[in-house]
Amino acid sequence: MMNLIQKIMLLVLFFCSSLAYSQQDSQFPQKPIKIIISFTAGGTTDILAREVGNQLSIRLKVPVIVENHAGAAGNLGTEIVNRSAPDGYTLLASSIGPISINPSLFSNLAVNPQKTLQPVAMIGDVPNILVVPSNIGVKNWKDFIAYTKANSANINYGSTGIGTTAHLISFLFSQKININALHIPYKGAEATRDLVAGRLQFMFATAPSVVPLIKSGQLTAVAVSSKKRMSALPDLPTLNELGIDIATGAWFGLFAPIKTSPEITKKINETVLSILEEPAIKQKLLGLGSDPSPMSVQDFTKFIQNDYALWAPVVKASGAKPE
Fold first, then answer.
1. 199-234 burial by CB neighbour count: b if 16+ within 10 A, else e?
2. N or C: which end of the chain has fewer CB within 10 A?
């Protein structure tokens, strides 16, 4: 059995170790921070993460290195960050797909982000806009409903792939308005081109990808899926205003390994909040079609839990399987 002196020595070692970690946490950061992005360069996640990374570097006074690790529908980035030390020096920049949808879409995930990642800070929320070709005569919500009833046997919607937000929100929307619409998945921008050409009848697309087409008259915006109206298109009603219980966008945020200390996650979160309050940054994000969405660590964590709970049954009902 352990004698009294051994017990005291273990307690002293434990206390000193805890004190050392506490001091390290309070002095964070002391070396460069790395942000792993789940997607390729040039996309919305990449643009937002690099903007926030630049500002974090200025405010925290350490280099912030941004690396793109695209692959496996965003799961690769999650795996890399999961293997890193939970010390705040490796963060993940990810979005709704890998975090909220993939745990239900993939039956054999190597790493489940709902269990292995700690939400740190919401960066922004990019609304999904319900858009239709301008040549079908639909100008507003009333016209859209009338069109779907008159053409019920020939309603197709496009998406950027099976199991993507564009697919699942359209599936959920079709259920709520009682139409039997056919899903046609694409590999990316081809969906928008076919929508403009009239080969698709509607699509939910992220704001940055379609706002220029709306303003040029090639597409008509019918509604927006976010909780509040868009700053860029203030006259466009939300689905909630139209009586459709859908309020979700393509959000983007920062995550850390699950055992990262609350002191560190709080410091990063508060720094991001200060960045999002900067007028120039806020205006830049709005220009990208992203509404800044400041949340505390606790609020963002709750948001992620609720978002997963929203999409899990939708994924199951849709029968979506990873491509």
1. ebbbbbbbbbbbbebbeeebbbbbbbbbbebbbbbe
2. N
